[in-house]
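User: Predict the complex with L-Erythrulose.
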Amino acid sequence: MLSIAIVAAVEPGVNPLGLSGEPELIFREASKMGYDGVELLIKDPFSFDVDRVKRLAEKFGLSIPAVGTGPTYTIYGLSLSSPKKRIRERAIERIKGYLEIGRRLNSPVIIGSVKGKPKDRRRGFKNLKSSLRICAEYAEETETRILIEPLNRYESTMVNTLKEAIKLKNELCSKKVGVMADTFHMNIEEKSIYDSIIEADGYLEHIHIADSNRLAPGDGHLDFNRVMIALDKIGYCSFLSAEILPFPNPREAAERTVKYIKTMFS
Ligand code: LER
Ligand code: MN
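Assistant: Here is the predicted structure with L-Erythrulose placed in the model:
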């Protein structure tokens, strides 16, 4: 059975692809709209009020299917592939902070933008791999999970396709590392979104959904019917998490998404 979540930021100063604002309001609205979960995009893993969102998730009967780490790179400029050792160390420290949150919420931690965009790709990839080994060890110690998310080439030069994510996952040889997808990035990088989903059979643990232009599903030219058929073929039964531009406004985009996707569930 598929579930649907909306990405949300509850700290000030985060530009979310989804909802943003006061946590109680977000959880209340998401449950009223018919969502099953709220995926948290977190800016500061060290000051984040985990107990509060845990209480709210319980109060409104919602899951927290994943924790996003993007601001580590997009706000603080830290990446796991940086040529500078100190930058990588700081990025790793933050990811450990996110994994602590993941442990308390029982949610996997997404490794997306924090993979970075180093000029020297070969060296960057070596650095990324050694940083991820440290993160994976910490995930093993804390019984948490890391999900590698391929992004489009304009946002990261490290891991752009599902195939690359699966290869990296296998090379890391850790039971605590998995793979996720994002239909917006796939539309730019994959030969076929639908075939790539089928080829990722047995690997996909989480999915971000947005249309071709990152608007709400249905507002672009992706064929979500075919996405659903491909997901059904591989028996995917986890979350579809809407990571969408807040247009025409955050609430309307979130409402349109849940309505559109739920008609497909049936
Ligand atoms: C950024 O475009 C994105 O898709 C995020 O999920 C990655 O951190
Ligand atoms: Mn994403």
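Residues 158 and 259 are 34 Å apart (CA to CA).
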